[in-house]
Amino acid sequence: MKKLLLTILLGCFALVGFSQARFDVKVGMSMTNVTANDETDMKVGYALGVGMDYAFNENWAFQPGIMFTGKGYKVGDVKAKAHYLDIPLLAAYKMPVADDVKFVINAGPYLAFGIGGKNKWEDEGISISTDYFGDGGAKRFDLGLQYGVGAEFSDCILLNLTGQYGFISPFEHSDSKNLAFFITLGYRF
Fold first, then answer.
1. Which helix H or strand E contains 157, and what residues bound it?
2. Whole-model pTM?
């Protein structure tokens, strides 16, 4: 895992040497749940991180990034809160719609690594907490598809609505997969 992260990070720095590459920062909100379980409810969390926009031409770009995201779900009195490091690797198509405004569609795979989290609930007035990941908990690695739409204003203000659908169940003996939606606002340097 460390070698993969280091390789991706070094690859991003190598691309920065070209004038077509620009960095951005993003902050926003996540709305997450797991699939294949009708008893779970959505959990609201956070999303923040950095990204890069490597333009191949006026319309096409490669957009990798590193995002810290809050994911999880609620089921009954149990609140499952997980913190992930997401690495999206997206292809983006940009269409001018007005002066200094572009409509953006992007899609591609994402890798996610669980970095912490808790399951919390109350039992007879006593607050109980267990680790989300680890022994008997969720798996730390997730892989899936990320897709989104957004707008770029003056080539520096970014507004995005993004979805993620996980391909790997985070739990043993379960068909549940991570499902997330993000609304983010960003600034490109």
1. strand 157-166
2. 0.86
